[in-house]
Write a structure and sequence with these properties.
This protein is α/β, with parallel strands linked by helices. The chain is built from 11 helices and 8 strands. The termini are close together. Bound molecules: 2-phosphoglycolic acid (PGA). 2-phosphoglycolic acid (PGA) binds next to β8.
Length: about 260
């Protein structure tokens, strides 16, 4: 049974005041059971958001981590530090990290391994650009992104991981993938893992990300291989995000 999951990627948004208001709204509105809910604040706020969400059903993760565990890496945050302040998850390979900060597939793979070594659940983000989709190479690109991590971490590592399919052209653009477009790639990703390990493929949770909002969440969650969402902009408003969580609740677990 795959429990639905809704994750909020706050990106570089928020302040102590705004975070307190947002988390209070989430904690108030969220029930226990139903979808698993995780928020990803900027690193500097992770510890405080963990405290604000304590005792609620809202888990907290980091948006990024260092490839290294400790040492002379000015400006970086290790997985162990995120874990130390109460984070349970971390995004790895978000397209903004790949494109704006030059993270290569090899770097993403090292970060995935570093996350697990620190006791965090990595949320591996994959997805094609618009040019790649138009060139018909979406599956090739996604497979290559997965291959890089599987080669280093092994297929079995994905028992303790989540995958987010985020077509780059749908992120922050208001142009979401259609449910059928999302489903096709999600089925491809599940098939990729099933080919190596049927149980793993069956149990792996694959989130969709890219302009998810309350008004389109239910139809995306209605697709057989969409197990939840990684939500950016719409995760910054408690009401909107809670409505997305409700849509995931009502779809329920599957698999
Ligand atoms: P968006 O961002 O929902 O604002 O498109 C999604 C993401 O980048 O994770």
């Amino acid at each position: 049974m795959r429990r639905p999951i809704v994750a909020g990627n706050w990106k570089m948004h928020g302040s102590r005041e705004e975070n307190a208001r947002l988390v209070a709204g989430l904690v108030d509105g969220i029930g226990h059971g139903g979808a698993e809910v995780i928020v990803f604040p900027p690193a500097v706020y992770v510890a405080e958001v963990v405290r604000l969400a304590a005792g609620s059903a809202v888990a907290v993760g980091g948006q990024n981590l260092c490839t290294e565990a400790v040492g002379a890496y000015t400006g970086e945050t290790s997985g162990a530090m995120l874990r130390d302040v109460g984070a349970s998850h971390v995004l790895v390979g978000h397209s903004e990290r790949r494109t704006l900060y030059g993270e290569s597939e090899a770097t993403v793979a090292v970060k995935f391994v570093a996350a697990q070594a620190a006791g965090l659940v990595p949320v591996l983000c994959v997805g094609e650009s618009l040019e790649e989709r138009e060139a018909g190479v979406t599956e090739t690109v996604v497979a290559r992104q997965l291959d890089a991590v599987v080669a280093l971490a092994g297929l079995g590592a994905f028992v303790q991981a989540l995958v987010a399919y985020e077509p780059v052209w749908a992120i922050g653009t208001g142009r979401t993938a259609s449910p059928d477009q999302a489903q096709a790639v999600h089925a491809f990703i599940r098939g990729y893992f099933s080919a190596g390990d049927a149980t793993l493929g069956d149990q792996l949770r694959v989130l969709y990300g890219g302009s998810v909002k309350a008004s389109n969440a239910a139809e995306l969650f209605g697709m057989a291989d969409v197990d939840g969402a990684l939500v950016g902009g719409a995760s910054l408003k408690a009401d909107e995000f809670l409505r997305i969580c409700d849509a995931a609740h009502s779809v329920g677990g599957r698999g």
